[in-house]
Amino acid sequence: MKIVVISDTHTNSIDSLSPRLVDELSSADLIIHAGDFTGKQLVDDLRRIGRFSGVYGNIDGPDVRQQLPEIETIEAEGFRIGVNHPAEGGSPMTIEQRIRRKFQNVQVIIHGHSHRTKNEKREGILWFNPGSATGKFPALKKSYGILTVNDEIKGAIVDL
């Protein structure tokens, strides 16, 4: 199973994403967006491409918040994946402590907000942040992530 993970796009339309990323999204078994869309149109665009799951972020307005949850737990080939932006915002320095309390019995925690990539396994949990697909500040680059799920789950960060 191939899961393409994006976050912090800060755009209202799929037209603002790179063609390479749109091709990758089209080939995914599942698309996950970890918040900060800025508009419902991108939610609709991603749903049209294929199987989609996402959470709203701290800058998303009522139109996105009415469509998506703040916190999501997804089952993928026997693995439990927690997704949270966090929508309350706050310092990126304490993000892991705040998010960790929100999930029980997960093998992966996906989050956004910092705009910085992360692909680290600690204490049995894969912490995964795809960065910003559009390179919005304070991102150092444009990036997205791929989770590959079979007998285990592995993450990869792809630079655009």
The CATH class assignment is Alpha Beta
Name of the CATH architecture: 4-Layer Sandwich
State the CATH topology.
Answer: Purple Acid Phosphatase, chain A, domain 2
Listing every helix as H and every strand as E from the N terminus to the C terminus, the arrangement reads EHEHEHEEHEEEEE
CATH superfamily membership: Metallo-dependent phosphatases
Main attributes?
160 residues, alpha/beta, Purple Acid Phosphatase, chain A, domain 2, 5-stranded mixed sheet, 10 strands, 18% helix, 32% strand, globular
Compact overview of the structure:
Helices cover 18% and strands 32% of the residues. The chain is an alpha/beta fold and 160 residues long.
Describe this structure in words.
- The chain is 18% helix and 32% strand.
- The chain has 160 residues and is of the alpha/beta class.
- The longest helix is centred in the N-terminal third of the chain and has 10 residues, at 40-49.
- It is globular and about 40 Å long.
